[in-house]
Amino acid sequence: MSEIRAPMGGKILDVKVQPGDQVNEDDEVIILEAMKMELPIVAPESGTVKEVKCKKGDSVETDAVLIVLE
Q1: Does position 40 have pLDDT exceeding 90, yes or no?
Q2: What's the rounded Cα separation, in Å, for the pair 70 and 60?
């Protein structure tokens, strides 16, 4: 099991996966807005989305857990 964490604080613009979805390494899973830039957050490894811990519009802190993969 692994976690996808926010590289910096910001606002969630889009969540592209749901629990149960299969993702491959480097798939875009979240779009984070930070410092007026859109940052794509990608899966560090292949797996199944176990839990999504954020939703569109949420503000997140640096290192916050966004998605849990198994």
Answers
A1: yes
A2: 22
